């Protein structure tokens, strides 16, 4: 018979070994952490060297902002990987802090009603995104933010090529991620002047976000002070970011509209984050219509276009044409990636054309809600009905109240044909993908009975 081992002795041995191992592991862990921190610091400081905080005038007209679009040209893969790993650690720490701070974990399993969804409305300027954003803003269980990334663009200056463009995309993405996790404090770093005690009067387009203008986030209005983006229907005190954060955690879902996310591929870490259940809706519009609309909204920027088209003056500067091309291409590349349905995106990406929404807003809204896995409410339906069949003529540039089925083709009669041709030349691949037909002459462009829209059943499959 084998001897029964001396149990207490053995146990002590095991314990001792374990303790040594633990010490060793602890030591190793410590070294690893030091190395990581060191590496991270280097990379982050490398990045932050390039992000200069600018002094910003307060009253810049917001419409201007996206015209300084930063887009990727030659982001080297090396720097992307480096930056990405540094930021993902940084992000995890932030996320932990957020969770501790918020007290309530925004994990899907904690939500008893329906799974918490995170909807990104990804668009570019003048594509009707304010209007489509309302579809989500009007749902009372959704915490909706209107262009929060505006603050980042305003305070951080990026050179628009190479590693800096990559850096900007990563900063946008990581701030966006924190916002989806309801960490609104992160935005305070970018608000100017900086909030005091988490109070600010400078939250961009606060009034466009119902959640920031209802109880309890709307605190009593006591002192008459200037608030540029104040709530529309009632007077509120300055925005308390902590209160807003609590409101966000208390809503069932979060939705953000953003015109500053240029590349879908950068959103992969959001999509793969187990704390998020992302649904990305990419909104596109005929680039000829977008140009026509921009020429009205940002008139100053398009002087040379108008002069060339209407007065035969000097040609449009090549860099502006290249910028238009860059915009079309980044939209197209994002859509191609989304439509390819890579594993990480499956069921989480939807492409939608503004023109289809304009023609059947309610139906498209229902499709978007179905895609998001959220029930559309009667309030949302009523808002859509009320705001798409309005008979009054509203010319407000930011107005979302339009007779939408009539409006969406107006551009055909306002854009000079020469400009339509420029757009067609540089945006052809994107137009082909989205089903926007080219007009080869002025007669085609302005003949109402010729449709420039190919009928497409849903682009996306679930
Ligand atoms: C756009 O910004 C420039 C300064 O950058 C300003 O002069 C111009 O008035 C702004 N345009 C609009 C439409 O606000
Ligand atoms: C970008 O890449 C192209 C070729 O891929 C090269 O010709 C160009 O010089 C690069 N630009 C920058 C800013 O590195
Ligand atoms: C975050 O918190 C979890 C659990 O509290 C911990 O396991 C994890 O290591 C933390 N992550 C970071 C990056 O601090
Ligand atoms: C902001 O809201 C938080 C959370 O309700 C509250 O504790 C804090 O006192 C408020 N801050 C101010 C300055 O009112
Ligand atoms: C909206 O425009 C369409 C197309 O011109 C027209 O048929 C319809 O009557 C208009 N609806 C309202 C409510 O004005
Ligand atoms: C508009 O197009 C239709 C269909 O191609 C054609 O029958 C009609 O003559 C055109 N109208 C004008 C004014 O060119």
TrEMBL record:
Pfam families assigned: Sulfotransfer_1
Bilayer topology term: Single-pass type II membrane protein
Catalysis performed (reactions): 3'-phosphoadenylyl sulfate + keratan = adenosine 3',5'-bisphosphate + keratan 6'-sulfate; chondroitin beta-D-glucuronate + n 3'-phosphoadenylyl sulfate = chondroitin 6'-sulfate + n adenosine 3',5'-bisphosphate + n H(+)
Enzyme class, spelled out: transferase
Record keywords, A-Z: Carbohydrate metabolism, Glycoprotein, Golgi apparatus, Membrane, Signal-anchor, Transferase, Transmembrane, Transmembrane helix
Entry annotated with the keyword Transmembrane helix: yes
Entry GO MF terms: chondroitin 6-sulfotransferase activity; keratan sulfotransferase activity; N-acetylglucosamine 6-O-sulfotransferase activity
Matches recorded under InterPro entries: Carbohydrate_sulfotransferase, Gal/GlcNAc/GalNAc_ST, P-loop_NTPase, Sulfotransferase_dom
Annotated Gene Ontology cellular component terms: Golgi membrane
Domain Sulfotransferase: start-end pairs: 117-435
SUPFAM superfamilies the record matches: P-loop containing nucleoside triphosphate hydrolases (SSF52540)
Enzyme Commission number(s) of this protein: 2.8.2.-
Subcellular location, record wording: Golgi apparatus membrane
Record-annotated membrane-spanning stretches: 21-37
Transmembrane helix is among the record's keywords: yes
Gene Ontology BP annotations: carbohydrate metabolic process; chondroitin sulfate proteoglycan biosynthetic process; N-acetylglucosamine metabolic process; sulfur compound metabolic process
PANTHER family: CARBOHYDRATE SULFOTRANSFERASE (PTHR10704), CARBOHYDRATE SULFOTRANSFERASE 3 (PTHR10704:SF60)
Similarity comment text for this entry: Belongs to the sulfotransferase 1 family. Gal/GlcNAc/GalNAc subfamily.
Protein name: Sulfotransferase
Gene name of this polypeptide: chst3.L
């Amino acid at each position: 018979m084998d001897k029964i081992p001396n149990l207490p002795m053995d146990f002590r041995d095991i314990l001792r070994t374990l303790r040594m191992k633990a010490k060793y592991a602890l030591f190793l862990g410590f070294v690893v952490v030091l190395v990581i921190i060191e590496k991270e610091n280097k990379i982050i400081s490398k990045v932050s060297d390039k992000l200069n905080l600018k002094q910003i005038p307060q009253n810049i007209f917001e419409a201007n902002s996206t015209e300084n679009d930063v887009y990727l040209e030659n982001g080297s893969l090396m720097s992307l990987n480096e930056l990405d790993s540094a930021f993902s650690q940084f992000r995890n720490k932030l996320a932990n802090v957020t969770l501790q701070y918020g007290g309530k974990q925004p994990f899907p399993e904690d939500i008893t009603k329906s799974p918490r969804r995170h909807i990104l409305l990804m668009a570019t300027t003048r594509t009707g995104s304010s209007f489509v954003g309302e579809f989500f803003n009007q749902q009372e269980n959704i915490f909706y933010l209107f262009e929060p990334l505006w603050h980042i663009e305003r305070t951080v200056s990026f050179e628009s090529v190479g590693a800096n463009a990559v850096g900007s995309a990563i900063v946008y993405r990581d701030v966006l991620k924190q916002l989806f996790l309801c960490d609104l404090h992160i935005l305070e770093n970018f608000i100017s002047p900086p909030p005091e005690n988490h109070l600010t009067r400078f939250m961009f387009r606060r009034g466009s976000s119902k959640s920031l203008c209802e109880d309890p986030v709307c605190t009593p209005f006591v002192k008459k002070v200037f608030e540029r983006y104040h709530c529309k229907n009632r007077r509120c005190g300055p925005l308390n970011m902590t209160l807003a954060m609590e409101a966000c955690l208390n809503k069932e879902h979060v939705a953000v509209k953003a015109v500053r996310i240029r590349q879908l591929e950068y959103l992969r870490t959001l999509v793969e984050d187990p704390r998020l259940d992302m649904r990305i809706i990419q909104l596109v519009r005929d680039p000829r219509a977008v140009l026509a609309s921009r020429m009205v909204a940002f008139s100053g920027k398009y002087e040379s276009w108008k002069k060339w088209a209407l007065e035969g003056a000097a040609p449009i500067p090549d860099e502006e044409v290249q910028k238009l091309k860059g915009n079309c291409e980044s939209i197209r590349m994002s859509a191609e990636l989304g439509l390819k349905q890579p594993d990480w995106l499956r069921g989480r990406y939807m492409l939608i054309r503004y023109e289809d929404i304009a023609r059947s807003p309610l139906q498209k809204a229902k499709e978007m809600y179905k895609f998001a896995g959220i029930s559309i409410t009667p309030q949302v339906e009523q808002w859509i009905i009320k705001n798409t069949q309005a008979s009054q003529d509203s010319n407000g540039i930011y107005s979302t109240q339009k007779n939408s089925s009539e409006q969406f083709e107006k551009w055909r009669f306002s854009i000079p044909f020469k400009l339509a041709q420029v757009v067609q030349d540089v945006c052809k691949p994107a137009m082909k993908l989205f089903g926007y037909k080219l007009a080869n002459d002025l007669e085609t462009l302005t003949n109402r009975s010729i449709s420039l829209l190919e009928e497409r059943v849903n682009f996306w499959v679930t």
